[in-house]
Amino acid sequence: MSYKIAVASSDGKAINQHFGRAEQFFVYEVEKNNFKLVELRKSADFHSENEDHVTKLKNTIEGLRGCKIVLVTQIGDGASRILRSNGIEAFDVEDSIENALNKLIKYYATINEN
Length: 114
Prior knowledge:
Blueprint: E1 2-8, E2 24-31, E3 34-42, H1 53-63, E4 69-72, H2 77-85, E5 89-92, H3 97-113
Parallel strand pairs: 1-4, 4-5
Antiparallel strand pairs: 1-2, 2-3
């Protein structure tokens, strides 16, 4: 079974953006122990100019629809809880995308074995 992970990154190499300020999310599809980039979702595509904080959060969650996990450098507790209630787990990570995805895949493989 495959799943998608959204990564907040400015350069496609490092996880280096805060959830609420992320300009884009690189979306990876994970199948077994492999991952591949499948899509780039730009925040501007799901936001309008004068959104309040709540509307921006709702629109970001909608923009991440289909993703199981989001990797960011930082996320507030409230946003994390709302994501979780929408079926998306958030992780604070400061690492390269490749390292973080490999670690996460190993983690999920071990908990799914048990």
